[in-house]
Amino acid sequence: MTCQPSSQLDSTHYDNWLTAQAKSRHPSAIRALFPLENKPGMISLLAGKPNPETFPFENITVSLKPVSPGAPHPKLEINAGPDLAEALQYTATCGLPRLHKFVSDLQNHVHGRRCEAGEDDFAITITNGSQDAFTKACAALIEQGDYVLIESPVYTGAIPEMTIAGAQFVEIECDEQGMSAEKLAQVMDNWPQDKPRPKLVYTVPTGNNPSGASAGKQRKVDILNLARKHDFLILEDDPYYFLTFDGERVPSYFALEKQLGGERGRVLRLDSMSKVLSSGIRIGWATGPQEIIKAMDLHTSAANLQPNSTSQAIVQALFAHWGIDGLLNHVARVADFYRVKRDAFEGAAAKHMSDIASWVTPTAGMFLWLKLDCDDSNEVIKERAINNGVIALPGVVFYPTPRVTPYTRLSYSMASIEDAEEAFKRLRRTVFEYKGV
Ligand code: PMP
Fold it and tell me: Of 131, 179, 275, which is best to mutate to test ligand 1, by the most ligand atoms within 8 angstroms of its C-beta?
């Protein structure tokens, strides 16, 4: 049964958001004809596909290791045959079909939305990590001079692409749940009539990079309602979604769009396997309105042709082996790993820094956003701390324009408990040195 939601944003609405660059892209002459190659009896002289007889790969074998004691660790075989042939060749722009299908089922399982059979009006595309999706989303949505609502502080890796696309940043203050809905409402309610309105809000809602903050359900509902009221999109960059430590994961913006009822089609969600499988495997995906995903795919077909398909084949084999439950068990183990790291790291911070720094305990992700008892963390962190043998990022890099801030971002993903203890001793010494004590 087809049940197209009556409240899906009209497809012409996206014309207001898509950039001239996105609208001027055309399907690749070759890729547009790829589906016809599968027609029975067709002889294809179409693409410059290298002949697979010349590829020196017979099989791909991946040995799994247990991430926690007792977990199974078999070998995955991607044997000569259609899977390997597809993975080694030029193939679908939006991702290997079987991986695409798994991700579609996963999004349905986790976020309660299904994109097949016309049940919901959105699309999915596999990308080379979520940064790739982010770059293409910026190119599709941000025009020179467009206002973009961002968290303050914001993921430092988001600043360059948005800047290059021509964004004018509107910083929204954050609290312990990330972007403040109250401040966002204030900004939007007072937005001058004669000024072009912001097109989108960019947010990292779980285990925020850098602040560690996670938005609760009500916060997301409030921001989603503001998006509806003021007609802007939500770019939900959520690579730490599966690294939620205690209790249930808060519904994503993408899920809430449906749960709340009313109109859909405002959320472009970015997922990543970097933090739970491997960052080098470069697999992520974007889920959102068909018009935007199509624009991103046209970008891919011109810029990369396709996301790395041997990586996709490995992830596809792994997902087929695990199934959705196995994947969710795995990410639960990974989240547990980082929860233990957080506890140890925070314990060391409490021991060495509590009189000279403050922070909010992160409930997801990898970051502690430390407010040092000094005016300018840059003065402490940039050179002095390095000279004393500890590297962290000064808060200044998480703002689009330079400023003086007492914050610094510490990542607890790698440090052992011994390293954490030593790092905080060194940081403490550095703060006192800076203060001349
Ligand atoms: N967004 C945020 C908020 C991140 O922290 C990161 C990784 N640093 C990315 C995107 C990029 O992740 P990926 O490896 O999936 O490209």
Answer: 131
